[in-house]
Amino acid sequence: MAAIRRVAFLRHLRAETCSLVLRYRRGRLVEQGRALHCWFLPLSTSIAEVPADDRELTFLCHARSADFQDVSVQAGVGYRVTDPERLAQRVDFSIDLSTGAWLRQPLEALAQLVTMLAQQFAAAWIGEHDLRRVLSAGPSCLRERIEEQLIADGVLRDLGLQITTVRISRVAPTPELERALEAPTRERIQQEADEAGFQRRALAVQKERAIQDNELQNQIELAKREELLIRQRGLNEQRRVEEEAESARIASEATLRRVARETDARAEALGVEAQAEGERQALEARTKAEATRAIEGARVEAEQARMLIYRELPQHVLLGLAAREFATKLEKIEHLRVEPDTLAHLLRGLGRTLPPQVPR
Predict the structure, then answer these.
(1) 3-state DSSP assignment of residue 14
(2) Residue 285 domain-assigned?
């Protein structure tokens, strides 16, 4: 916005670098320029201030596709003024000579015009295609169509405007339809993710199986080596046992031979001793036998003589001798049993043998 300063009956205008000023006097253009500084009389002067910088408009457009589906478009259009004099003639950019503000709202009018044209071209292109084509083509096709139509349109060119940029930030259906359209893709992506998960799991299982097979092969190899080691140890142990058995056999044979020699020598010695002892014992036995025969012969003879003597003795004498012999054996006899018949017989015999007594 231009700055106007009042000095007496004159006015001084100072415009910014982004503004182009057109000063009219009595309906004729007398001066124009960018960042203009000038003095003027307010009673005979009219001033228009046209923006010289690039402007950008954003808008939201709702359209219907060929298959009668609502589509929302969020876009932006940039423009600049190429012919300020023509634009000032078509759109009122006059400013208040006291404050420097616009008397109307020219920028809003330009924004409405450009926005309506862009929305018209966007709706026309969307209406020519179905929803899937619109969404698959994306913002690029729609941006090219709007840009071509705006550049080729004669209204903006007649106004002295030039389109600089067209941006499409979003093309989307209604939320419900968007969710419905996203469902197959979401399911496909989920299926692909599940398939990838299954493949990873299968690969992991395969690797795990390979690891287990490798471990099993290692265990089998270790078992084989251990079996060979055990077999070798068994052979070594068998060889050692055989060697020890052979050594023991040789030692046993040597011991047996030595023991046999010692036994033979001892048996021979014992045989000599036994023979000598036998001869000695035989000699002693013969001597004892001869002595015994002599003694027994003498004893038999004495006994025979004694029996001859006893045969001639009377019965009471024999009883007396028997009593004396019995008296010598009393200490050795524990029990003595005398029958009444025997005692009566002895007493009768004793009575017959006693001599008759002379009466006193």
Answers:
(1) strand
(2) no
